[in-house]
Amino acid sequence: MRCSWTTLLLSVWTVNYRVEAICPGDAGATGDVHIHHASGGRTDVKGYDNAIINMFQSANLSVNARFTFANFTLPPEDFRSTSVKEVHGSFITATYLVVRVSFEEYALLKYDVAQPDMLAIFISSSSLELDTSGWLEDARSTRFMTKKGELLKMGDLNVELEKAQPMRVHITTNDWDLLLTTGTYRTAMNGAHKLRIDLSITALTNPLEAAVAPHGVIGQGFDGLHIDGKLDNYIPNNKGVFVTYAQGEGAIEGVLSDYVVRPQSNAFSTDFKFARFGKTRAPSRAIDKLNPASNLMRRAHNLKRAIATVEEEATSVEGQAAVARRLQLSADDCPATSAPTPGPNSAPTPS
Predict the structure, then answer these.
(1) pLDDT digits (tens, 9 = 90+) for 128-157
(2) At 307, phi and psi to the nearest 5?
(3) Is there a contact between 23 and 305 (Cβ–Cβ < 8 Å)?
């Protein structure tokens, strides 16, 4: 049976749901801030200024992001720039990762646009039962990676600084592959170039078989359901200013404030409403709590190699053509895969 992906146009208030053939797709967050779920769904998330929000979490990996509000201009090659003179939106400016590397050992990784040539890594042996705000204070060793091509291996954690401008951070575990890539935007006030962070996550094992289903703003999209949420329409006011407003409505379980980690004083905190870190069992997102609810009853059977991204959307003619080509892939064009790798591991238990 032949099936294909099709392009979807959304109005501001319309949310559509589809179950489709799953080819390896994009999942993550880019630009200001555009969410691409692994199953093909899209939504925009403005976030809250200076807030730490969980983007992805599984039993052994947590990815938080700092959102920063900014007033910026669209690039001239963006067709919308003829009518939109200024955008009041947001970008990701820092990421905070927690990786469990053994039963009682954690690696905490910080990448911040304030120091784009450096990745800070803290090794902690704090127990999850303790106040996680003490993780950095209790860190028994600290390392700063600054050289492109530099590698770090610790248990099943691999970190590499790849050549890019200024740098790209590549992180892998047994179950997940993450890329942190810097991009730029131009401020509206004086045209100065500033840095943002784009995030991409790829499943190396099949998350649909995991005892602990991933969650977070991006992570919940690894459930095999193509669900589109609210998108910013970029229609400016009479002064040419557009203020972003979408907060993932219709694509994320609950509301965005549910993903703000607690306490905000601890950027590495794994605690939020849909926390998965350290769990041994947890379900995928509840589609009856998507605001509005979905009535989908079927899902894809394999999302191995599916990618989630947070990135800038394609706005040039060439970029849109590339997106159209990707969305029109048919199931027959998907590369052949071997038998699915078992699902990701749950949190380890003491022997």
Answers:
(1) 444 555 556 666 677 889 888 899 999 889
(2) -120, 140
(3) no
